[in-house]
Every structure is written in structure tokens, then in C-alpha cells.
Amino acid sequence: MKGKVLLVGAEDEENLAIRYLGAQLQENGHTVRIVPCSNRNEFSGVLKELRSFHPDMVAVSMAFQSLAPMFLELIHKIKETNPHVHVTVGGHFPTFEFEKILDYKTVDSVIRFEGEAPISSLIDVLVNNENLSSVPNLVYKSEKDVVKENHLITEFPDLNRLKFPLRNNKPHTRLGERFATLVTSRGCFHSRCIYCCIGAFHKQKTGLPYALRSPENVALEMGKLYHDQKVRLFQFHDDNFLLPTKEASYARLNTLKRSLIKEGIELEDIALLIKTRPDGVDEDILALLEEMGTVGVFLGVENASETGLKALVRSSSVEEINSSIELLENFDMGVTFNLLMFHPRATLKEINENIYCMNKNKNLAFDFGRAEIVAGSPLENLVKRKRLLEGKWPHWDYRIQDDAVEKLFRLNSLTFYRENSLYPELSHKLIALSYRSHLLQHFYPGKKSGNLKDETERLISKVNTFTLESLIQIYSFVGESEIKENLNRLSNEMDVFYGNYAERASKLGEKMGRFQVVEKKFQEKGVGDYFQNSTTLGRIFRI
Ligand code: SF4
């Protein structure tokens, strides 16, 4: 007998986690519906689907720790609506926190680690009234309220044999282009960063801590998206798009490039966004990535001091970071990065070195913050061991050992990251604008796209200059005791500045959108240059 499964997950873009599960379930003959839920306003959509679809099982993807309370609330409502439906949850967070999650009586089971094989087995067992004990990776409570942990799968699935994730009929649009996300691998060859749970997530696996899809298999999926859905922008969600050695990366990229051409993809007609560690790139690799249409690189800098990199167990060096940024500046790619300059052992010297890095790279879009506690990460164990843990599950907080850095972090939380601060959203907007300005250069090279790129760089530099000045002011407050007035003044200045620049960033995004719409039409008629060089048309379309 086959079953009906309702898959629920946050979907700001297609959620590959649930979409891989959906594809596997369909392959095994089950009926699947996917319903997005990224916030409480979407509860009604889930409940409506629950009433009309009558699923045998609801599977909730609880990948993000911050969203766990919201999903537990949703599950409560699901059970109020249909007390008999089996509710299972999965994802990184429940994989490690299954005991606490199973304390919620509304959750019937938790699927730990990767879910394709377990979810298919679970629905089979449910519709055929069999015993849950045969379902791999499953945890649940017995009738006597004892947590039962089933056997674990110790190998990665063969990624080349997995069905491609289910897609919507119409792709999302991002940066003004038809867009899809993909993964080319699972796990991570490094698997050691202190703030990351990926090492623990794949710890039970025998063999390497990561698995790869073949380049041919990746190209096949991209070809389908390109031809059937006219997708042009592909974002790779692999934490490391590149491999442990440069030789291996180069060979893999070369095969991917050849395979894309074989699939009938015009390389100049696609754009890629990737993430990589700084030690992963060299000139040949970047040249190949550029040829394949890479317009954005999120560089895993994470900390710009040797002691910080060591404390975060990044296994990369400041020299590698600097040389990769220098190298990347010779290529037409938007380079962005994040600095986790606050962590339990951070010192003021490290903070200085990170500020120095920001100042040196003011032309790039970046973000900064604290290494947060993710369930299953080594950081979680460290702060517990050092008795630095504060706050409440699942929103853990912790103290930084150095009092001055701790104070600096709290002052940052009261300014840059206070509730309703416009800075976090603006920094993400700038990252998107950086990628988009390079995408425009790639798809629509010419005078106007060049001007838009220059405008983006100026905007990013202005915001970063103000951010650095503010950060230095906050730094100067650390040694003072009477800071309330200064802090309020600075917060007000930030509101005005970031409010103003958030609006400018939105307007620039809109301008890029208008440019793309018009330039596409001119390109179709073979006269793209005419629009790029026309002052009159520029005035008409406000570009
Ligand atoms: S942060 Fe990135 S490099 Fe570090 S372990 Fe996680 S996935 Fe790997």
C-alpha cells in the first residue's frame, strides 16, 4: 500500500532538503505535496492543505534552530486539526536535539541525519501497520515513554542515483533572473570548524566525511533546469564548492564545464554563485570558474587573525585569505565574506586585526558577528565545558571569556544588531547587489551595466566606511563607564544613515531590474549596445 505525505519546510527559495525527500517518495510510488512555511502567517496554508489532502504523514523540516519554536507551534496546530496523522521532523537541529523534541507529545518521531531512505521506509511502515523499529535513523517514544533509537545508516546515499529534487513548475526569480539552487555534494572535507555541526552530522559515516555527485550528473540537472525552465542563475549551496586539493578541483571543474557544453548549455548564458574556502582557489581555478559564468563568490574568511582562525579551527591562514582576495580582484566576480570575529576566546588584538581586514576590503560587501551555538557543534560543547553557556534552549547565548571583548560584543548587540536595526538587512542587500552588479556585467556587458557596477561599489564603500567608524566609536566606549548617552546618540545616527542607505540600496536594485527588463528586449533584437549607449533611453528608464 502506498501513502500520502505532506512535506513542510521554510521556503524563501526552493528548499532542497524537503524536495529531495519528495522526489524519493514519489519515486517509490507515494503521493507528495509540498507546502511552504517560513513564518506564522503561513500556518493557515499548511492547515488548509492538511484538511484537503488528508495525508498519512506530515514531515516537517526543522533545519534552522531559530525556527524550531515556530515549527513546534505549527505541529501543535496540526495535531489539533488531525490528531491521528503521524508527524515526523527532520533536519540538523532535531538530529541532535531529538530527546528534547520528543518531549513534545505532538511529535511522533524524529528522522536523524539524511532522510531519503528513512522517510520512504517510515511511510511504508505507517500505511502497512508495521513496526517502527525497522525504520533506519528513526527515534520515537515507546508506549512506555522510553526513547527508542533505531539503527543508523552509515553511508552516504549514492548521490548520482538520487532523483533530482522536485521543482515548482515555474522557477523563482532572483537578482532579476530565473534562478535555481543546487548541491553538488554532501558533507564537508574539512568538517572541523568549531561553530559548524556538519562534522557531527556525518560522524557516523564510514569513509570520507563528504560525498560528491559526478560532474555529469550535476550538468544533467542544470541542463534540465536550463532547457525546461529557462533557468540562467544557479546558486550552489555546497559549503565548499571546491575540493581539498587544487588539482582535484581543477579536474572536476573541467569535467563539469565539458558536461555543461554537452548538455547544450551556452556558458555565456548562465551565471553561477558559489561558496569556497580561501585556500581552495588559484588563478587557473578562478579562470575556469569565470569561463563557466561565476559571478559571485562567498569566500569563507570567517576570521582575519591567526589566533581567531586557530580558535575557530578553520585550518586556513591570514596569508591565504589576503592572497585569495587579491587574486579574486583580478576576476569579474562579486566577492563577499563574513567575519565571526566574536567567539568565546576572542581577544581585543583579534578584534583589531579583523577591523583592519574590513578596512582593507571596504570595497567588498561583508557582514560580521559572533560564532553562534548550533546544536551538535564543537562550540556547544566548549561553552558548556567552560561554563560560559547562558540563555535558554533552543536560543542559547554565551559569555566571551575576555571581559572587554564581551562588553564590545554586547555594545554591538545594542547598536548594529539591536531589534529593528537596519544594518543586518542592509548588509545582506549589499551582498546581493554586489553579485547582481557582476551578473549584469556578465549577461549584459556595456556602458550602463558598467555604471551600475561602479555605483554599487561606491554604495558598498560608503556603507562600510560608516560601519567601520561606528565600530571604532563603540570600541572606544569599552573602557568607559558612562556610555548610555553616547550609545543612544550613535544608535540614532545609525538609524538615520542605514535607513537612508537601505533606501538607496533598494532603489539601486530597482534600477538594475529596469535595466535588465529593457536590455533583454534590446538584446533580443540584436541591438543591446544601442540601449547601453543611449543617454535619452537612460533618462526615460531612469537608469
Ligand atoms: S564551516 Fe564550512 S568548512 Fe567549516 S566545517 Fe562547516 S562546512 Fe566545513
UniProtKB/TrEMBL annotation:
Keywords: Iron, Iron-sulfur, Metal-binding, Methyltransferase, S-adenosyl-L-methionine, Transferase. One of its GO terms (molecular function) is 4 iron, 4 sulfur cluster binding. The keyword GTP-binding does not apply. Residues 1-133 form the B12-binding domain. Transmembrane segments: none annotated. It comes from the Archaea. The keyword Acyltransferase does not apply. Its cofactor is [4Fe-4S] cluster. It holds the Pfam family Radical_SAM. InterPro entries: BchE-like (IPR051198), Cobalamin-bd (IPR006158), Cobalamin-bd_sf (IPR036724), Elp3/MiaA/NifB-like_rSAM (IPR006638), Methyltransferase_Class_B (IPR034466), rSAM (IPR007197), rSAM_horseshoe (IPR023404), rSAM_sf (IPR058240). This is Radical SAM protein. It comes from Methanobacterium subterraneum.
